[in-house]
Amino acid sequence: MSVHTPCDAHGTHVLADLGGIAVDMLPDAAALKAILVYAAKAAGANVLSAHFHYFGGEHGVTGIVLLAESHVTIHTWPEHRFAALDIFMCGKARAEDAVAQIARELKAEVRNVRTCERGVVPLR
């Protein structure tokens, strides 16, 4: 396993609300973990670990993929066919690509995506 150094403090933070997702996909922690890990890697990020929790019954999942470049998180509400994503990536990793991949895999009918560039300009 190679060691990756932390990237520059500047990065892209994306919040995405995905709707119209098939109800059976949203409580499936194992499938969501596979989708998010794949999307992070496809976006050029280095996955350090992942943890997903299914709340049982008709409830959803909360999950995080910890990256050398920051994180990918998801919170799902099957009863509303809704998933909320929070993706922050720095360096050459592409947060927008991860969102697009996850939305495709979940077959989201509705996508509301907000992007923010993060970081502080150094004082001179």
Structure at a glance:
The chain has one domain (11-118): S-adenosylmethionine decarboxylase, CATH 3.60.90.10. Helix content is 21%, strand content 40%.
Walkthrough of the structure:
This protein has 124 residues and is of the alpha+beta class. The chain has a single domain (11-118), classed as S-adenosylmethionine decarboxylase (4-Layer Sandwich), CATH 3.60.90. It is 21% helix and 40% strand. The chain has helices at residues 29-42, 95-106; strands at residues 11-19, 47-54, 61-67, 70-77, 82-90, 110-118. The protein has a six-stranded antiparallel β-sheet, with helices on one face. Strand 4 (70-77) and strand 5 form a beta hairpin.
**What class, by secondary structure content?**
alpha+beta
Query: How many discrete domains?
Result: 1
Ends: how far apart? 38 Å
What's the overall average pLDDT, rounded?
A: 93
The main β sheet shows up as: 6 strands, antiparallel
CATH superfamily: S-adenosylmethionine decarboxylase
SSE series? EHEEEEHE
Task: State the helical fraction.
Answer: 10-25%
Biggest β-sheet: strands ordered side by side in the sheet: 2-3-4-5-1-6
